[in-house]
Amino acid sequence: MKALNPIVIAGQEVLPIVEGGKGVAVSNGLSSGSWAAAGGIGTFSGVNADSYDTAGHHIPQLYYGRTRKDRHEELVKYAIEGGITQARIAHETRGNNGRLHINILWEMGGAERVLEGIMDKCKGLIQGVTCGAGMPYRLAEIAAHYNIHYYPIISSGRAFRALWKRAYHKFAELLGGVVYEDPWLAGGHNGLSNSEDPRKPEDPYPRVVALRQVMNEAGLQNTPIIMAGGVWWLNEWDHWLDNPEIGPVAFQFGTRPLLTQESPISAAWK
Prior knowledge:
Elements (H helix, E strand, L loop, with lengths): L6 E3 L2 E3 L2 E3 L9 H9 L3 E5 L22 H27 L4 E7 L5 H10 L7 E5 L6 H8 L2 E6 L2 H10 L11 E4 L22 H14 L7 E4 L20 E5 L17
């Protein structure tokens, strides 16, 4: 296998390996902070993350509101408090190594409020925000407000072109990378179009080459593409490394971090 050379992400040289953000309190401060401490890019989930009381006990997310609106406000409050808690744990764990990202689902109820509420209290703790599950047009504007890098998750060059033309070209300097989430193999919110058959997976290589061509047209030759979905062994991606058709590339692992010592899931599940 070719050497896996460091790459510049969010203004710092890191290993081109990314922990994929997983919700339901699985990608937390300890897992992402440990990933960053090892020199990579750790990602904690900002989707209803866990928070703790002064004794370190988990705070159950219970809802008492009489109306749907009241319960939604409780949910947003829990999400902000949990995100702040996990950001602080991750920052302390990483020891100024690697990079730390927060993952947000754009179509999540209150997504913008949650992200802004977390960032308001986490200045200097988070270097980037990764966002998918929709077309996050306002992601760049929000990231610019907090002077952090942003990483949209897309599944085609066409989707990125739409984001770029409508909004991202105004904040090009903070576009830290583009996450290509394979619509057949990724474990997240897969973005198949009506013209694509969910039963017939396509090779990601030509799709990512097409994405790179769109990015090159926009002057983003040095902006990394992060390959997500189906990444297990890096030696299977040897032909992607130092490849001018692909350009700067990093690889995102979602499943493998589940089995690490730092992963919060139960030993029985592992």
